[in-house]
Amino acid sequence: MLYISNKDLEKIVVLDDIMDCIEKAFEIYKSKNFQMPDRMHVDRKEGTILYMPCFTETVSGTKIVSTFPDNINNGISSIQGTMILNKSKTGEPIAMMDGAMITAYRTGAVGGVGVRHTTRENCTSVGLVGTGVQGFYQVLYACQARAIKHVYIFDLSRKRADQFKERLLLKLDGVQIHIVDNTHDLVKASDIIITATPSESPVLPDDKELLKGKHVIAIGSYKLAMRELPQSLYEVLDDLYIDTEFAAEESGDIIVPVREGWFNGERIKVFGQVFSELKKPGSETRTTLFKSVGMSLFDLLVAEVIYNKAVEKGLGQKLGE
Amino acid sequence: MLYISNKDLEKIVVLDDIMDCIEKAFEIYKSKNFQMPDRMHVDRKEGTILYMPCFTETVSGTKIVSTFPDNINNGISSIQGTMILNKSKTGEPIAMMDGAMITAYRTGAVGGVGVRHTTRENCTSVGLVGTGVQGFYQVLYACQARAIKHVYIFDLSRKRADQFKERLLLKLDGVQIHIVDNTHDLVKASDIIITATPSESPVLPDDKELLKGKHVIAIGSYKLAMRELPQSLYEVLDDLYIDTEFAAEESGDIIVPVREGWFNGERIKVFGQVFSELKKPGSETRTTLFKSVGMSLFDLLVAEVIYNKAVEKGLGQKLGE
After folding, report:
1. What is the pLDDT of residue B285?
2. What is the number of other CB atoms lying within 10 angstroms of the CB of residue A58?
3. With bands split at pLDDT 50, 70 and 90, how would you rate the model's confidence at A294?
4. Is domain A2-103+297-318 classified as CATH 3.30.1780.10?
5. Does B82 sit within 8 Å of A76, measured CB to CB?
6. Edge-to-edge strand order for the sheet containing A79-87?
7. For chain A, what is the mean pLDDT?
8. What is the topology classification, in CATH, of domain A119-293?
9. Residue A209 in contact with residue A237, Cβ under 8 Å?
10. Which of B37, B64, B76 sits opposite A62 (nearest CB)?
């Protein structure tokens, strides 16, 4: 069994490869050649723990990931996790890695695939609301998918935004990073807007004119009570993509707009279903939303590709019998 | 995070300590001061995968364990698993160990606690039906709980029985090990009879006179379709203990006898409930059955005690960031 640390992951992960891997996952999702049991939730007073198993022909695996919001007050990441990878045929465990990092890499890559296929090709600016771990990787992948020159960031805490900017500067070359004071300025300045917050009320201005022509990538809301996006966005949307059917059952950003009649549910496109028919984006101005809630198939395929690369490169720590 | 290999486990595990730990688990079970979600099953064509989470005040953890019967034909253990231990307050993973070994140690210890409290104190012989990994540890713990002089073993495969005897000899001092040709001879010769098979029909003779006065520890059946014990056993039983309430809902060895009227369900004692009131067994001859199906609380407490000892002794492999 191989333990792959976060330092090893850094050496292994190539953003384009992970986005390609997510595209492969969308193809498998469409082919139905996998088994993905309903994720299991456990509620504790500290937060939620999710168990996300998935099985393909070659590998099976489980991500266990907890979200304990108060951790931040103690300087500990709110998301903690473990990803276990097994051989499908025998059940033997073959690798372990940090489930929080796998979540960050794969969620970033899902957003990046959204950027690749739902935003116009000449986008040069990204705005990010919410400067957590997820937001960080969303920006990295967005900058990989498009020739981004400017990144605008907003967070309720200025201190967090400053620290975030410092970390981002270490990773992005030739990109200017601006901290903005409000989301109005952020939306105005950005071609692509990424929301990555646990908010229960909209974090973008409820302003049609402002939102028209923007590309939104929303990854925060994964429960009915969670919502990041305002009503007007849905009223100006040309296309609404969801990464999986579950988004329409789980996220307040899809359930509420359909229920309230802001957007016709029949117009929603499931990404895995339409993926092979999508035209390469041109420079046409459309208003789009790509909403992701994720699924364990993403984690499994990303973990598999990382494991295979670790073996190829001789990375990882062998665990004794 | 600490990885504790099976070699480390060997150095850490003291059978009496693990049995004490199981007794502590029975006390916590009674106090209800824990959270144990329903275990999640996934059925694959190769077998079953179980996800078993549990939470106490100090630690939380998850055992993932698969049972793929055909593995044996490829020289691979049918039971494969991973045990992850986390801090309860933050969700941070603190240790990983082999879930199959934890299962073996804790299931053996549960059987051993059954022997400690439900068999007469002057038992000197144990008979084992089923020479898998579970059976191995059942015998070790039984020999620890009573001054056993003779162990009788039966398996459908003589080759497996021979190999089992060799392995057992390395672990047991001053005990004679006999391979028997049939379970009639095994029951006749043994004070304590342990059944550890995946059988769907009784593995012991349906013979009241033979079974009277015996102490049965049954650990094989965990589904309705699985049964190890014959009707006559229930008709001569003085006491029927189950380790947890789940046994009455899950095991064919409890469900069928109650449904068929072989044993009055109201006479069944849940071990955790009666544990504190049990008298120390004397030399009185009674006919007893202790039926275990296990629960994740056992795994969690055993993993916690092993982790604490590993830290104390400086054992285990530190996993890099």
Report:
1. 87
2. 12
3. very high
4. yes
5. no
6. A40-44, A47-55, A59-67, A79-87, A93-98, A2-4, A317-318
7. 96
8. Rossmann fold (3.40.50)
9. no
10. B64
Q: Is the sign of the CA dihedral A110, A114, A294, A81 positive or negative?
A: positive
Residues of chain B positioned with their CB less than 8 A from the CB of A89: 46, 68
Find chain B residues with C-beta within 8 A of A37's C-beta: 40, 42
- Residue bearing tokens 């190999």: B163
Which site among B33, B60, B90, B97 would you substitute to test the A interface, given the most A Cβ atoms closer than 10 Å to its Cβ? B90
Q: What is the pLDDT of residue A278?
A: 83
Write the pLDDT tens digit of every residue in B219-260: 999 999 999 999 999 999 999 999 999 999 999 999 999 999
More confident residue, B320 or B137: B137
Quote the minimal CA–CA distance from A97 to chain B in Å: 10
How many residue contacts between A and B have a Cβ separation below 8 Å? 114
Q: What does the pLDDT look like over B101-151, one tens digit per residue? A: 999 999 999 999 999 999 999 999 999 999 988 999 999 999 999 999 999
Q: Count how many Cα atoms sit within 13 Å of the Cα of residue B43 in the half-sphere of its side chain.
A: 0
pTM (two decimals): 0.90
Asked if A76's CB is within 8 angstroms of B86's CB, the reply is no
Is residue A233 predicted with pLDDT exceeding 90?
yes
Res B185: pLDDT? 98
Domain B118-294 sits in CATH 3.40.50.720: yes
For residue B91, list chain A residues with Cβ-Cβ distance below 8 A: 46-47, 49, 66-68, 71, 80
Any idea where the domains of chain A sit in the sequence? Answer: 2-103+297-318, 119-293
Neighbours of B49 (CB within 10 A): 24
ipTM of the complex: 0.88
Give the three-class secondary structure for B23: helix
Contacts of A60 in chain B (CB under 8 A): 44, 49
Q: Which of A76, A81, A91 sits opposite B49 (nearest CB)?
A: A91
